[in-house]
Amino acid sequence: MTGPITTGTDLARLRELNSLSVVRALRGNPPSTVTELASRTGLSRPSVDLITQILVSEGWATVIEPTGSSVVGRPARRYQFNAAAGYVIGVDVGVHKILGLVADLDGTVVHTVRRQVAPDADPQVRLAALDRAIADCFTKTKLAPDDLWALTVGVTGPVDATGRTTLFTPLPGWSAVDPVAYLTARYPCPVYVENDCKLAAVAERWHGVAQDADDIVYVLAGMRTGAGLILDGTLRRGYGGAAGEIGALRAVRWLTAPSHLENCPGAPETISPDDKAAWVFTTARAGNADAQTAVRRYVRDLAVGAAALVLALDPQVVVLGGGFSRSADLILEPLHRELQRLCLRVPEIRASTLGDESVALGALRLSLDEADQRMLSTGLSALSAARRS
Amino acid sequence: MTGPITTGTDLARLRELNSLSVVRALRGNPPSTVTELASRTGLSRPSVDLITQILVSEGWATVIEPTGSSVVGRPARRYQFNAAAGYVIGVDVGVHKILGLVADLDGTVVHTVRRQVAPDADPQVRLAALDRAIADCFTKTKLAPDDLWALTVGVTGPVDATGRTTLFTPLPGWSAVDPVAYLTARYPCPVYVENDCKLAAVAERWHGVAQDADDIVYVLAGMRTGAGLILDGTLRRGYGGAAGEIGALRAVRWLTAPSHLENCPGAPETISPDDKAAWVFTTARAGNADAQTAVRRYVRDLAVGAAALVLALDPQVVVLGGGFSRSADLILEPLHRELQRLCLRVPEIRASTLGDESVALGALRLSLDEADQRMLSTGLSALSAARRS
DNA sequence: AGAGTTTCGCTACGGTCTTGCTGAAGTCTA
DNA sequence: TAGACTTCAGCAAGACCGTAGCGAAACTCT
């Protein structure tokens, strides 16, 4: 109650806020004239003019001198956000694969790395593969170490505040490693480690099927089952980073739900357990009764946990993601029926369309958020630098 | 992406922000000198001086001229937030009672009304009783209608955005009434209706046992069982206002959990069902095996829903409220054991100490939040008024 | 080539915050 | 009791920011 109040706003901070406002008006838009920016930000033209000049001199924006344009009147100089001022990386460290994405500050992906990893690989082997994937990102895009502004890695299992997965993880031996420490020693930028379901949820809100929603329950349906929560537009981690782990409750049959698919009678013994689910779905689609029963039982078990999350949070949208979301045509409708039976108010249910890149995309988004933070703080230095000149 | 950006900050808004900052530095603190306010807000003394003068001229603050002080140096004039500039009301409309609280803008309760209502009362009777309770608040405190800045009412059952409880409520006939429309027609101030568990959760964070926590699961344990969620310091309503209604899931035995206490063998038939729980708790405390079994079974059922919420949200604290929280000595320890069995990470569990005023207190807090909003918007008019003089 | 239109660059003006200084009102000490 | 010391109140100057408005420049259309 008696603590200091940080809202002490002076003129420098006002300038900072307005600079940020201009940057936001630049980003994600085509090259803009000063007048356009002024109307978008609500600021006056001279203010925007001054700010853009500072932004250009600091390397945040580039000028596009007018070419022969088609409109009447003097053609306006156009400014563009300099997305190449920095780059970010998002990596998905899965059981079978490592997928890395490099993007510029606009979020445009400029490089993709995909590597296979043995499911039973040692943590050291997996870390080394991760390291090589990141190194590949650097060499292929000709990045200097200082060009990387943030690095986010997605792993399976609840991640605590320090980036470790001490409670539980299906990655063998991973609970003993400290990936944040490993990576911060190698790369001179902020490093984050986050749970894969949470990242996939972030991706769905960024570029997926839930861009319009602020309250989202993301359900990862695959050989593992998990959940990620977005409430009020921001990712919920929970006090210990274990939010969404409803599957740990025995009454919720998420741990054993995929076994209905794996143990479906009639499946050929020759195919691997991982491919068995795909076989069940295609066979069920063809009309096989055993396969349809297996799917029904799977959805019934999946729905219990989903219903618990829906009742607890009352989201706007439930997003079905993970490997099984490719068979959403078989899952969505019975899942909706089950939720109608179990819940008070049934939210919209949508199937993910991001495929297996969702976790890496979410990691990218988190890295971009970190980059935004950095832009905000260095925007202040840009101000004071301009003041001296 | 191309929408207008609202962060266009000009000098008037800066002044507004700083005025608000000074108001916040005044509120909840003892009468303060200008120097103290300057250090608290981070602004300079002349700025604070100017703003306080405006605040005093607008009636937001009062001056305390220095009396003979004990410190060295010239004694400072002190400013105090004028909490009597407005009042707010919070009401708990329960099954058995209606409890109303009146408070000034500092949140200091100046009047309390308590009325009994028959559990089976018609909605019209209940509304009329609510109306009389509010009228009593006005007459006893000699308030003018314009002195009331906000009115919040807590009811049982999930409340939608319009303040109605169409999904479900134990108040007979209440799902058909529109309390917001009823009250806005009578009182010239914003009116809010909110779920009782959510309000109780807010109260625990405001004046209760969870003041230090930002992520709270509040469990109402009484003849009814419910939950309220606070995440990141703000109340979670859910997209349709039905967040926390985990009790609707049949696998969670919250609906039937209290029956273990009601149907405890050995209880005298003469006492009412409502008092039976109290009898069971006292008897269990005395060592009766049947009563202890009933309590154990009750806690086991209570824990399933609590575990679902804990696993879903990973809160910092679980607060046990409701009528049964008076018997927390019997509940807390077995509840902790059960959660340890069911959850990945067990949060702290604390028992509420607010008694049966928690819902009304939470309603008061929501009214105060609305009052803060109004202060922010009228603070702008105070600025422009001062500019003209 | 001239008129019309739109943008750019520049200057003046009003508002806000900070810094620095002077006088005022107390307390402490000799 | 008088002087020194401390702290507060008020004023003035300076710096900074955003807004308003004007003339000049550049391009298109007739």
From TrEMBL, chains A, B:
<dbReference type="InterPro" id="IPR000600">
    <property type="entry name" value="ROK"/>
</dbReference>
<comment type="similarity">
    <text>Belongs to the ROK (NagC/XylR) family.</text>
</comment>
<dbReference type="InterPro" id="IPR036388">
    <property type="entry name" value="WH-like_DNA-bd_sf"/>
</dbReference>
<dbReference type="Pfam" id="PF09339">
    <property type="entry name" value="HTH_IclR"/>
</dbReference>
<feature type="domain" description="HTH iclR-type">
    <location>
        <begin position="19"/>
        <end position="61"/>
    </location>
</feature>
<dbReference type="Pfam" id="PF00480">
    <property type="entry name" value="ROK"/>
</dbReference>
<dbReference type="InterPro" id="IPR005471">
    <property type="entry name" value="Tscrpt_reg_IclR_N"/>
</dbReference>
<dbReference type="GO" id="GO:0003677">
    <property type="term" value="F:DNA binding"/>
</dbReference>
<dbReference type="InterPro" id="IPR036390">
    <property type="entry name" value="WH_DNA-bd_sf"/>
</dbReference>
<protein>
    <submittedName>
        <fullName>Transcriptional regulator</fullName>
    </submittedName>
</protein>
<dbReference type="GO" id="GO:0006355">
    <property type="term" value="P:regulation of DNA-templated transcription"/>
</dbReference>
<dbReference type="InterPro" id="IPR043129">
    <property type="entry name" value="ATPase_NBD"/>
</dbReference>
